[in-house]
Amino acid sequence: MGSSSREERSEIAFFDVETTGHGQRIALLEFGAILVCPRKLVELDSYSTLVRPADLSLISTLFPRCNGITPDAILAAPTFLQISDRVYDLLHGRIWAGHNIKRFDCARIRKAFAEIGKPAPEPKDTMDSLILLTNNFGKRARDMKMATLATYFGLGEQTHRSLDDVRMNLEVLKHCATVLFLESSLCITAQEVEPNTAQRNPFDMGQLSDEMEESYEMSSAVAVSDGRSDLAGFLEPDEVLTSSISASFVPFRGSQRIQLFHEAILRLCCSHLKVHFGISTKYLDNAGRPKLNFVVNAPDSLCKVLDACDGIAQKFSSDSGSSSEWRPVVVIRENGFVNYPTVKLNIPNTISGDNPYGTEMYQKDSGSMQKLVFSKYDPAELEPLFAPGTFVDAFFSVDLYDYQQNAGIRLVAKKLIIHSN
């Protein structure tokens, strides 16, 4: 297809890259793309090629991969500089589409152009099928890998070759659209019985994202009334079957984050945890306020669950294309200390609202329980409440972070019941 102006480029460019290396030393091994008519969803043009990286040391130890990419094939391939004009013409001014491209493929393309000193192509818009399908099919194919989605729709095995993967991506989206169309038709039939029910466009991804984010925030909150908590959804460690823990992307503040599930969102509760180290104010948040946390002794049952969570989350993060360094420090262990292992519970700060802390806190004394109300942000006010040796009942979420090339798990306290000594 010949070049055209950006305004005329209505085709959707599905693309995918295969890479080698890790951290800051990642090199492209393959680029593949198809141009798709947005009206008929048919393939109009295609292009794929292996790519020889500038740093040949990245492929010197490359073993023959199951997808057929071998060191000899890479050595015989053109450099990215040699294919850059073709890649630019395919991508620039078109809608970019692919699976997890916002987080992985787009960054790899821009970096490749930067390395050869050429301006990178810019999209008219970007459609990440990982985000779209997470919004619609999270409960059907929870880990949202392309291989899992292909199996769900009976499309065969993923080859992990760029051109095959983008074609499979298109077929997955076609099947998804068909299911949504059928479900929307059934929804319309139900609305004929209940005419007051508001009709929703099932293809409005923005609306779906907003609703799922709201649902996520609501499910992460702890309902509290007069010191009595709604414990639905909080599991004791002994109730968790580690083989049933899974990870998936969920919408979060206009983007997405990795969330752990155990049927529903995984949240834990533990009673009578002993404070080992009191309130810490070592690190600061973006507003310059200390990030608050304290350390408690962890029972073996909790350690078992958190170790499983750490392994599952780390693998999902890596498989999703994150290049961040994983920090597996959920359970803190030091040989020779009788009070270990321990875990760190975080007390989040709030930006607005009456409560300066994002954790509900109660004090229990002789069978009665009183909600603690704080008028201002003052870590010194919390220090005597969480003195070493104090016992707490903790209700917390298992949250994943990926920030400034560091990733891992943090335990965020939703509700704390502090036992008076």
UniProtKB/TrEMBL annotation:
**Tree of life domain:** Eukaryota
Give the molecular function GO annotations: 3'-5' exonuclease activity; metal ion binding; nucleic acid binding
Q: Which cofactor does it need?
A: Mg(2+)
Q: Which residues form the Exonuclease domain?
A: 11-182
What residue ranges are annotated as transmembrane? none
- Keywords (A to Z) from UniProt: Exonuclease, Hydrolase, Magnesium, Metal-binding, Nuclease
**CDD domains in the record, alphabetically?**
DEDDh
Keyword Metal-binding in record = yes
Q: Name one Pfam family in it.
A: RNase_T
Output the PANTHER family linked to this UniProt entry: DNA POLYMERASE III SUBUNIT EPSILON, PROTEIN NEN2
The name this protein goes by in its record = Exonuclease domain-containing protein
Q: What is the lineage of its organism?
A: Eukaryota, Viridiplantae, Streptophyta, Embryophyta, Tracheophyta
